[in-house]
Amino acid sequence: MLGWSPQQIAARLRRDYPQDMRRRISHETIYCSIYIIPRGELRRLLIGCLRQHRKRRRPRYRSGERRGQIPNRTPIGLRPPEVETRRVPGHWEGHLLKGRANRSAVGTLVERTTRLVLLARLPALDSLGVCRGFAGKLAWVPALLRQSLTYDQGREMARHELLRKRLRLQTYFADAHSPWQRASCENTNGLLRQYLPKNADLARLSQRELNVVAARLNNRPRKTLDWMTPNEAWAAQVKSFNVALGT
């Protein structure tokens, strides 16, 4: 048994058989097919294959959750293949790192090719504050190195079109409940917990303090970069673009 989740199975089928609709199924259909089975050995066996072994299916969305209410969003399925390969720099992932009781947060931006991380102090946790915080950090990135931003379907990105207009970058949205589609950001947020713990009031931190935290991660050698640091990988990309432009 491979231990794949229904989400991973559904996503892999779409990837392996993009033109064969007979091999297409949603993860919700898989869950429903399991939980619709009456009591018995087969139901127990199938539920035992799930990671959390719940006897009953949880509601698809938690109470009060309002995902999916993002106007004019472009799904991740329409993102160019070059983004997936990580060979072309300038494509970013974004997320929020929450603090104590989810009352404070820091904006996290990770460049997919170099793993460079930027931390944004947010003027507010609403959609306007988040977009302003992200725009303020990405504005310092050379235009050629800010091609796209992939986010989840959190309502804090409801004003993503402001980012597109101000920075001229494309925004893409991952499928619901699919954190592996933003693996760089998820992994980086885990590393950041060393410096920004869950019980901290992140609103107390200045942008200068966040820059220091980001610098610690950007100066760590990374196995995925052949033991270069994100800063070194980023500098190499900037240099190659400058040479290409003749500057």
Briefly summarize what is shown.
With 247 residues, the protein is an alpha/beta fold. It has two domains: 6-49, no CATH class; 76-245, Nucleotidyltransferase, domain 5 (2-Layer Sandwich). The protein has helices spanning 6-16, 27-35, 41-49, 81-85, 127-138, 160-167, 183-192, 207-218, 230-245; strands at residues 91-98, 105-111, 117-121, 148-151, 170-173.
Describe the structure in your own words.
With 247 residues, this protein is α/β, with parallel strands linked by helices. It contains nine helices and five strands. It has helices at 6-16, 27-35, 41-49, 81-85, 127-138, 160-167, 183-192, 207-218, 230-245; strands spanning 91-98, 105-111, 117-121, 148-151, 170-173. Strands 3-2-1-4-5 form a five-stranded mixed beta sheet, sandwiched between helices. The model is unreliable at 60-68 (pLDDT under 50).
Number of domains: 2
What composes the largest sheet?
5 strands, mixed
Cross-sheet strand order for the largest sheet: 3-2-1-4-5
Instruction: Please provide the ordered H/E string of secondary-structure elements.
Output: HHHHEEEHEHEHHH
Assembly of the depicted chains: single chain
**CATH architecture heading of the largest domain:** 2-Layer Sandwich
* Counted beta strands: 5
What's the shape? globular
The assigned structural class equals alpha/beta
CATH topology of the largest domain: Nucleotidyltransferase, domain 5
| Average predicted local confidence, pLDDT | 86
Task: Quickly name the level 1 CATH class of the largest domain.
Answer: Alpha Beta
- Give the low-confidence spans: 60-68
State the end-to-end CA separation: 54 Å
Amount of helix? 25-40%
| Whole-angstrom Rg | 20 Å
Helical segment count: 9
The CATH superfamily of the largest domain is identified as: Ribonuclease H-like superfamily/Ribonuclease H
